[in-house]
Structures are given as C-alpha cells and as structure tokens.
Protein 1
Amino acid sequence: MDVLSLPDLKELSGHTDGPLVSIYMQTQPFGPDSQLENVGRLKNLLKSASAQLAEMGLRPAEVEAVLDPVRRLSDDRPFWLRAEAGLAIFADGGVRVFRLPEAPPETVVVGSRYHLRPLLALLGSDRHFYLLALSQKRARLLRGSVTGLTEIDLGDAPSSLAEALRWDDFEKRSLQYHSATNGTSGGRRSPVFHGSGEPDPKDEIMRYFREIDRALVEQVKDGAPLILAGVDYVLPLYREVNSYPALYTQAIVGSPDSLGDEALHEQSAAIAAEAFSAEQRQAAERIDALWATPRATSDPETFVLAAIHGRVEALFISNEATLWGTVDEAADSVELHTLQQPTDEDLLDLAALRTILAGGSVFPLPAAHMPRDAAAVALLRY
C-alpha cells in the first residue's frame, strides 16, 4: 500500500487494456472493529465491480480472475493496520493500492482506462513539496505532503560542512605546495609555497552549499516547490548559489536540528499550502484577464484537443461534472455524447491527465467555486 505520487498517476494513466477496475473507498484508521468495518465496505464495492464486469460480458471465472487479488486483501491484517482515511484500488488481474489522506466518495468504475479524476482533488490537497533543512552540521532534503516528511538521499553531496572542508583542505594543501618550473641541478625542483591566509567562512559555506545545490538538482526533477529551513544568516547564502527554479521565497527561520521533524513538517506544510493557493489564484486571475482571447476557453472540444497537444497551462475542473465522448487523435477530433455510450471515456479525466503529463496544473474544485460557472475552464499556453 503506497502513498500516491505524480509518477504513479502517470503510470496508471498509461493502462488502456481493459477491463480495468477502479475502486475508491473510505476506511477507518486502525482501532476496535476497524478491520471488520473496512472489509465489509470492500466486499460491497466488489459486488458492484463484479456486476459491472458481468455486464461487459465476462464469464464468472474471468470476473474472479480480475477481482481475486483485491478479495485477498480482506485477510491481510498488516494491510489494514496502515489504513488512513481512504483507499484507491486498481485491479486488472493484479492490484495496486494507494492510501489516501482524505476520504474519497465511494465509487466503482470499470472501463478501458482507470478512473483517475477522483485522485486529482486528493493530489490537490496532498500536493508534494520539498524541504531543504540546512545547518553546518548537516543538510537534509525531505519530500513533504500533508501526511509527513520523507528524507531523500542527496547522493555524494557532503553530509556536513566539516566533511566538505575536509576535502577542500586536502585540495588546498595540494595546491599550496608544488614544484617550481625552474629546477636545480640534479633534476630536483624547489618547492614553491603560495599564500595560505585563513579562509573566509562565507566562502567555505558557499562552496558547501554549491555541492548541496548540485545534488538537489540531480535528485529533484518535477518542479515542486522547494522550501528552505535554517538560521537567518544561512538562508540568503544558499539563495545566492541556488539553481533550482521553484525555490519559494518564504522559509522556516531557525535551526532545523533544534526544531525537530514534527515542527518542520507543520511549518513547511503551511508554507506549501500558501504556495499552492497562490498558484491557483494567479491562474484564475489570468483566465479572467484573457477571457476575451483564444488563450482562455470553456469549450470542451478546444480544451480537450489542447490538452492532448500539451497546450494547457492550467485546467480548472468541477468535481461533480463528467464529459462523455471519444477522441480520435489521428484525426484530431472530439465527439461528445450527452449520455455515456459503451466506448466512451470521461474526457475531463483525459484532459486533466494530459495536462499533468505535459507539466500543466490541474485544479479540481466544487462546482460552486468554478470560474465562469463552467464544467471546465482552461488557460492555454498558446
């Protein structure tokens, strides 16, 4: 059982060989009778999945082959010990399960693709960020979400300023003593010493931070916000050498070693929430400013095709809306249907996933909070 990440969402979106079963269920965290209650919920949802598979023409043995890995979860006590607010379960004869920090609407969908849009709202509330905790004793990179912080290995970066200086001192000593170009008789060369005044502490720290920055950029590729934590004189020094494009301006001021992980998580999650809220607000303001231009649209055919071509910068989607239809990518055409037909997919799902895969932002909202009172509104890159 995993915590959902963007790479997981991308991997799931690539499955197109049905029948694929998507189950969203609420769960009770571990406590008296929680496993019994959770297993009961799962069994009821499996009945719905079984009925939908049968309607697609699968024989009982074929239905069982798809759902059996999910049924086996019922007796897995360690699995239920780790329950949180909800689960997303994806089955195709194998099973992938993700624990969710918020309870989803209970849903069972069987089709040629996994039903992933319920995850978008949950990812929106659990969008990840990075925290770089800096001190002279150590530097730690942590991946954060509403559920906690997880440390990420910084590879060959020095673990502390002392370790960085140990190698720097070795290099300095090697450079301060070398042979003169004009040798004496017998081929021996006279040693030459260069000035070796006390190093500037700022320079030493900056070299250390450059190594941390190099390792961080090698590890982090997804552009999520980066938040700094450190004492007040350290933070501007790191900002001077930073090359990560999504470094956030607000930081946690104080020794991260003294604060502890619980306080670091609480403060960094609050800063990240503000960053995500600002991103959504700015996208909505740009849609309003560009509404009379081709850059902003609520036309389904326009934004679905734009998403397929990677042209959507930001997409607002109503949590309650669906858009049934089909896409012919070769012909670059969209066909919309008022009622779902057998070969249909939810084109809002498709548009959201393609937007995410192309590096755009997706903001699932309650219908009452949607811009322009539309089912979906897109801000196009061009």
Protein 2
Amino acid sequence: MKKKYKRALIIITILFFFTLSISTGYGLWKTLKDSNPVDTSKVLNCFKMYYSSNNDTISLSNIKPILNEDGNETSPYTITVTNICSEEKNLQIRLNILDDNTIDLKALTLTASGNLESGIITYNSLRNAKTNNQLVKISKTLGTITIKSKETIRTNIRLWFDEKQVNSISPEDTFRAQFELIDMSTQTKPTFAESILLNNEVIDGSELNYGEAAVAGGLYKVLIDNNDYYFFRGAVTNNYVTFANKMWRIVGINTNQSVKLVLDTSAGTSQYSTYKNAMDYTGIKYIYNNNLVDNQINKFLLEWYKNNIEAKGYDKKVQDNDFCNDSFNINENYHRYFAGYNRLISAKTPTPICNNTTEDFGGTITQKVGLLTADEVAMAGGVDNVNNTAYYLYQAFDYFTMTPAEYYGYNAYVFYVNGGGSLLRTTTTDNHHVRPVININSSLSVDGLGTIDNPYTIDEN
C-alpha cells in the first residue's frame, strides 16, 4: 500500500511541475506577444519614420560583390513614413555616404520599390544634394514622394556592389551610409551656382596647358583676385540649360556667383561692324563725335535680347554683368597688337580678367547681353589655328567673339571661331554667326541635371 502511495505521489509531483512549466512558458510567450514592440520611430516635423533595421545607418563589412540580377534578391532596407500633419507634404529621401566609409562607390548599385520606384541605377548617377552635416562625405537624392495627410508610405531600398564594376574591395573595407529624410517645406533649394558645384567634381585649373586642344571634359577652378572662378572645359555633357524656350550651355560661374550662359546655336548672322578702317571698330561700343555709339554687333545683340528675352518676360532673371571687349593694345612699327593677340597666339595664357584701357572704344562693357571672349573660348578648349570638334563650344559654323586681335593695313581684326572649332582672326566687316551670352541671377535655383535629356531649368519664381 505504501509503494502505491509513493508511486502516486511521485506521479502527482511530476504532473505538477510539468503543468507549472507549461503555464509559466505560456505566460512568458503571451507576455512577449501582447507587449508593444520597442518604438524605433523618429519624428521629423510632419513625418513619423520607421526603419526596418531599427536605425537609419548602414554599416557593412566583409562585402562580397554580386551580379545585378542577384542584387534584386537581397533583403531590402524598408523605410515607413506617416504624415502626421493635416496638410499634404513632400518628402525627399537621400542616401548619405559617411566620412568613415572606405569603399570606392563606383560599383555601388541600388534599386527602389514601393512608393518610390526606380530601376537598377548606380549611386554615382544620382543627383547630389547640399548638406551641412560634417560627418557626411557625399549626399545624393534617391527621390521625392508626395504624402497626403495621415497617409503612410513604404519604400524598399536594395543596395549592393556590382561585381562587374568593382575595382577592389578588401575584407577590411567598411561601407558606411545613412538614410536621410527631408521635409521639403523646410528646405531652401541650392542656387544655380551651388547646383553646378554639387553635380561636378571641381578640378584645379592653375596648371592647365592652354596650348593643347581640350578633349576631356570637366569643371575647372582658378583664383581671380582671391575669388573662385569656375569654367567648363572640353567635351562637357552636363552643362545644358533651357531658358527662354532656348537651349544654352553653361560657360562658367563668375566670381559674383552669377552663371554665364551661351546660346547653343546661332541667333543669326551679322557684321561685327560696317567699317574696318580704324581700331575703334573692334569695340562693341565706341566714341564718335563725343557720342557713345553701339557698333553693328552690339545693335544686333541688343535687338535680339529685346525680342527674345525682355519681350517674353525673362529679363528679371538676367543679371547685368561686365563683358570684356579688351582694347588694350601695343604699337609695333605701325602694327597694332591687342592684348588678346599676345595672350592667345604667342603666350597661350587666356584669362577672365579684363585689361584697363585708355582708348575711347571697347574695354569693360556692363550690360545684359554680350559675346564670348576669345579667352573664354581658349579656356573651354579652343586653340589658335588648331581645329577641335570635341569641346562643348564647337559648332559647325563660324561665330564671332568680342576680343580685338590686331589692326594693320587699314584693317581691324577680331577673333572668331571657325567651323572647325579653331580660334582665328577676321576683319570687322565680315559676316559671321552670333551666339549671345547672358548671365543668370545668382539667387535663382534650378531643377534638372544639366544633361541634354535632363537639362537645368531655371525656377519660375
């Protein structure tokens, strides 16, 4: 009897602890299930944001490059955003490369799905964004989404390194990046000049050889009176601008931050002057009988500007600027050589600085429209008597510059660009095409990337 009792007691004890463990386990599971998850959200103005990785930072090491078709199968970074305000908002999503990133970004590839859609694109092809964050090396925009009040959107972003584009990745390399969400209503858009600088790697131009016809394209910088002067050179493909229903090319950024544009085609043909028997006719303006006179080329420019810019309501976006009609000259045995002749033919040292002059023609002219100088053509890639069809200022027609060249034998000569892209000299009474030049107000902003398919467009406001 005692044995049966002991056996029953043991069984009861085992059942008790078994039941207790089940009850405790269930209670623990139920507690975890019913409890609220950790709130990893962040609030930015009207946006409440959640990141699938619990924060906005990506930190990867031991990276193995893969093919693009495999990249689409990787786990995404999911960003969920709710507009908690009562009005519709625009949200910009950026991917910032942090300062401690050690991997070359050439092979960085990504795609987006959900409320923000994109095919397979490289990171370097994205538009740069302006950032004041000292920890960010590069900031690029993935896209912008409009979110209605109380609406929730979700975007999945996959990123990988394309093995066909990889130079080298060592096991010690680390990819460090961060998503950044921007409430566009609180952002001030970068100016035109800032957008150009954001979208280009600036190259030091202090050691350029202007005796060689430029082929490779880029944005260069030189120092002018302690101010930065930027200019495009060579076969540039991202300096297109649409303005006043016309296509233009960016020549550069002036020291006052205005942006210089040249018409990407011809505005028509004209003589530079109806006369050639005096040095004065190399000036777009000159003094005659104590009166300031517009030369033929300036009459053409001012009339074109009036009809195509001013009359169509675009004048307020164009800034008065100094145009260099360099008339400084030296007399050598009855042959007058202008300063541009020595700079561009002999020394090959073009400059955006304009010489002071004591002549009653030319010099620095302040107005809203002008022409390229021969120096600007040379800085862009043109060379005296050397054809170059690769640089962005090349056109298959002859066109005037506003730089005087020489005067001898009762003939006044100015520089022009021939149909082969070479800098040459022509008499002032010859007919050539005219490419007007304007300067866009430094305070204006733009959209677009500057390419022929997506040119910069100047904001209407």
Protein 3
Amino acid sequence: MTRHLGLKSALTALCLGLSAPALAHPHVWVTAKAEVVFAADGRVTGVRHHWTFDEAYTAYVTQGLDKNGDGRLTPDELQELADENAASLNEFDYFTVLKARGKPQTFDAPREARMSMEKTQVSMSFLLPLKAPVAPSGAVSIEIEDPTFFVYFSLTEGQAAISLANAPQGCVTSIAKAKPLDATMQQILQDEGAIQPQDIGIEYSNRAIIACP
C-alpha cells in the first residue's frame, strides 16, 4: 500500500526513523527561492515559492510513490504528496512572513502546488496568496525561515533568490541570506536547552526588503 504523508507527519516520522547522529538540528535542509507577485495595479498579491529538499528527506518521503515501477517519479505520481504538503503548511505559518510597512500580512491557503524530481532531490513549488493585496509603498519585507530550526532554509545564489513578478518600474530588492550553519552552531542547536532559536540572531535568517517608488 502506498504511503502518503503530509509535511508535518513526514518530518516527524523522518526524525524518529533516523539514527541518533542524524538527529542534530536541523533535520531537513531546503534550498529556496521565491518570487514576490504583483498585480497589474502595482499591489503585492502573494509569493511563489520553489523549495528543493535534501536527499535524505527526498528518499524518505518518496517511498512507495513510483506507481508504475519504472524507477522514475513523475509530477503526476508526486501530486498527491504535493497537495498534502501544501495543505499542512498552515501548521508552520508557511515558513514565510511578509510585512507591509512593518505590519505582518495574512496568507490564504496555498495554490498550484506541484512537486518534481530534480536528479536525486524532490522540489516543491506553490503560490502563497495574500488574503488582501497590499501596496508596496513604505517597503515590503519577506522572511523565509523555520524559527525552530527543524528545517533550515538556504536561499539560492544571486538576485534570483528573491525575484519580482510584474513589479512596477523602479522597484529594487535588497537580500540578506542566512549564514551557513557550521559544526559549532549545529552542536549548540543539538544541545537541548543550550540556546533558544530566537536567541540565535538574524544572521541565520533569510530576509529581503523590496522598495518601490
């Protein structure tokens, strides 16, 4: 029987099923890029995410999904998993914070969820719409992270890490990428009670500020 796991169940099962040395934080590594989507009237309407998961998570979460046994996983075979993952993202606050003029905005349920295999890693893309579009005046900021450090997000290289779709002319983006976790920081995260995630600092966060004229 094929096993289908939403993101929360899969991450929990992965954590419990791995050997002890692998249980250090983080448990799952994601390489991310995002596209901030603008409407024709110049307001921000949402964020389109693209996440590529590490090989260990990929191997676990895709078990039993090769329905035709041809050794390849197609987007159709991964669609049910994509839908379940998208549906569970609200439990994690979508790993996304978008602020307009310093005020956090509220998201609607994800749409257009898709998953595909990129060599040995599974990728997921989805549109995260805002419940109410916002004007970019006064700056818009976006943060992509898991404050518990169960999942660690790293942005792709270059300005494409946070891009703009249909933005008004003159909008510019300033990106601050999360600092890579070295062995010392991973050990600190592993030592229960040694440090709280909120005390680690913004250098381990992915943030961007979008300024429009």
Protein 4
Amino acid sequence: MKIHSEICVIGNGAVGKATALALAQAGFDVVLLAPAAQTSHKLESAEDRPWDMRVYALNHMAQALLSSLKVWSAMDLSRVAPVDAMLVHGEDSGGLGQLSFDAYGARVGALAWIVEDSNLNVALDAALRFASGLRVISATATALKLATDNAAITLDNGDVIETSLVVGADGAQSWVRGQCEIGLDYRSYNQQAVVANFACEFPHHGVASQWFLGADGIVALLPLPGQRVSLVWSAPDALAASLLHEPVEKLAERLMALPDQKLGQMSILPPAAPRAIPLKMIRTHSAIAHRVALVGDAAHVVHPLAGQGMNLGFADVDALLSALAKRELKTECGDARTLGRYARSRKEDVALMHLAMDGLQRFFASELPPVRALRNAGLGLIDRIPFLKRRLIAHALGKTSLTNPEERWQ
C-alpha cells in the first residue's frame, strides 16, 4: 500500500512527537513513523508511580513551544518542579569559586522546570491522538529513496510512504542520517551520566546545585517536587562503575559530603538502583540533505553539564516550523531553499552550544594546577560581573537578552 503525506517524521521521542504535532497543528498533512513497541507511555496514579530517573530541565523557549501545542497544561503539573535558583560550586570550598543565578534577578518566574520523561511523553501521546491531519504508523523503516520530486520510505510490512519532506527525529543513532550519508564528528567523553533520585532531609527551596569536581566529574542535584532531588553525575567510566556497584548508602554518603551541601540526610528513592548513560558528543556536518531535515539528537548531541540537549531539540522544532511557514506560496515542504533557511537558522546556536559544552567539559576535567586555579577564580569573577551573568542566564533561558524586563515569550 502507498501512503501519501506532505511530511513524514521518523522517531518516537519527545522531540519527534512535538515535531509531528506542531506540523499537524500548522495545517500540514503529517505521518509520524514510530516503532511499534514504543508508541505510548502508561502511567500509574501519581501516588503510586516512582519518579523517573530521566528528567529534563526545560527552559522558557521549550515551555512556550509546549504551551502553544497545548501539551504543557496536559502534563501532571504536580510533578513538575520550577527551578528558582542555580548554584554552581567549584573546587574552592572557601566560596570564591561559586556562581549563582536566581529567577528574581533574571526577572522571570522560574529559571527552568524539571520535567519527567514519562510525564512529558504521556501528554504528547494524548495530544497526538486528537490532532487532525496526523497519522501515527507503528512500523519500522527499511529503505529510504530520495528522488527529485519526492521521498519514498519503505516499511517492514511492505508499505511505502511517499512524502515531500522527511524529518529525522530518531535519536543519536539516527537511521535517517545514515541513509543520507551525512558526515559527523564524534567524541566519547569516557564518562557515564549516573542518574538516581533521592529523598532529602531538608527542603531544596527550588535550587539546582552543581559541583565541578575535577577528575571526579560533575555532579548536579536537580529539584523535584517536595523534598526530593534528581541526581545526574557525569562521572569518568571507572568512577561510574564504582557508583553503580557500591551500596546505595555509599552513594548517598558521597552526595552528603559535597561542599556546602545543605540537604541533610539523603536516601535513594525506588527503584533503588542508579543507572548510567554513556556520554558523547555528535556534531553533524549538516542538519539537512535532499528532502531531509534532522532535529534533536539526530542533528546534535552535547554534554549534559548544562542540561540543554532537549532544549536544543525543541528549538529545532520551532525553527523548522518557522522555515516552513516562510516558504513561498505553493512551494513544497521539501524545497531546498526552505531547508537551507532552517539549517542557517540553527547553525550558530548549535555551534555555540557545542563549543561551550565541549570546551567547559575539557576545562573542568583538567587536573593541571594553573587550570584549576583559573576555573575557580573564573566562577567567582563571573558571579561579580552582572553583564556576563545576564548573558549566561539569557542563553540558558532561550532568550536573546534580559535587557528588557517586560520581554516574554509569545
């Protein structure tokens, strides 16, 4: 059977679903091609279900996009935690190597929001079911043929999807990217992101805390609702193996011993076993090919030290939607000029994020004494220069500036 659509989105993560939903709501005829085993998420009642180990720190741009799609209000907001402040600790326990941000100083209601993966995906799944102009097909692509006048995707059941534009939203190991032979630069950080959730003795007051520990990596404790926090420890492979295999009480002791840690006693939440995710950098040589656009991890993977990976993906969605909206009348979706506009609009932002995250990871991993002294002094210096702090906050929030206190996302 042949299936015709204007756009086919391949991928079943949050970015792929948001892409398909945004395009359908904009009036396009869209097919979302998703693996059959992962087409939906199910949640128990809020009282019974454990806290996800995978969480995202969504910025204002992401929140605005999800609100425009009617997804934000569909989430269980009782399980969403606003980040009211962020405190970054260097290795100088005397306090000179610290950097702090807060929502009040940035003149916003929150710096970010901590959202569970399942909470986000359940809301997206519900929105997809009611979206007009959108078909969800549970199948796997086996071949992609890019012709002059269309793209043809052969499925494992023999069906063929003929479309003007293919959007690859299928993750870091993107099948779509591989079919287009888009080159990439790859770097393993030889680190694992060790994740777990903890109950804490004292309230976190909405503060996200981060510790740069040199050879021991980077520890982040992100606020969850109530007296709970989510751990993301970007640890070297050998340390990560120890963190995964030692008693969970030992991991809690490590966290309680962090400098200026004010959460008191900590105990791991169910499931009482941390997990680990290998960390890498992927920089694609292009976000587009003939009749193809890449979004999310298919287009770029950055170190999670600033929690910007998902935000970059949602920014891709917004930029693709904008490029399609600006195309000339009667121009098809896969038009090369339209895709070129999308690629140019994302090039600088993605390149800057790669440069910043990769550079910071190298800088804070160095054990050279002069570098250690410089990075601690640098944190304290930035903390004392309001202009630099405003620029950093604005970039993290997804805004161009914070010079106008009335500036808001539409």
